[in-house]
Amino acid sequence: xxxxxxxxxxxxxxxxxxxxxxxxxxxxxxxxxxxxxxxxxxxxxxxxxxxxxxxxxxxxxxxxxxxxxxxxxxxxxxxxxxxxxxxxxxxxxxxxxxxxxxxxxxxxxxxxxxxxxxxxxxxxxxxxxxxxxxxxxxxxxxxxxxxxxxxxxxxxxxxxxxxxxxxxxxxxxxxxxxxxxxxxxxxxxxxxxxxxxxxxxxxxxxxxxxxxxxxxxxxxxxxxxxxxxxxxxxxxxxxxxxxxxxxxxxxxxxxxxxxxxxxxxxxxxxxxxxxxxxxxxxxxx
Length: 285
Hints:
Blueprint: E1 9-17, E2 22-24, H1 26-35, E3 46-48, H2 52-72, E4 74-75, E5 82-85, H3 89-112, H4 114-125, H5 137-140, E6 145-152, H6 165-206, H7 215-230, H8 236-249, H9 254-259, H10 261-284
Antiparallel strand pairs: 1-5, 1-6, 2-3, 4-5
Helix pairs in contact: 2-3, 6-7, 6-10, 7-8, 8-10
């Protein structure tokens, strides 16, 4: 490898546990399958044990945390771990701590209101309600968790086991190959993200009648600020395109692009040129 990646990045995993608030009702499933002459495993009836509103705050935090985790890290391996560049560790860990605090507050509010949740479910479910479907109040808190785990990127040299020398060499070569492949995939992902937001701008601005949101520009601004933190290989071409995108496509506010046809057309042309130029790198990556 061109450099020791352990000095530039680490592996981040986001672990989330939530109460499913669902319960398979075997009796109802059996009744429905019997009524329709279906096989016993043809369908399953799952009861919803809590209203959407009851879990809304928790799920909002979970969705935001997942989105941030995916945005601030890069694809890596096949076990759900993501590559977190060292230069982005501070911002990432600080924001994830905030998500953890928000999650804990939302869970504590749910636990506090848990008796009400059960009471409301009794009214919603009617004859399907069964108090035994619900964990005890002292158990429900343990059904929720949100945490991040940080681990070092493994090196082939870390492999230690009593095998023949040629077997060890083969395993180390395999590990190195997978590390290189994962690193290449992470870089390709960055190229693709940048290409996608530029292509979207071309699509929206090329049509004078097309309506677009402020995020059309905002997403590009955000990504051009994020790419330097995630560019673990310090790819000079990626950095050059990032700078070009930042200088040519992030200068004007969305409202100006809406009101000024000339500015809209010029920005669309600039975005189109960037998209064409980037296309070659995307195909080669």
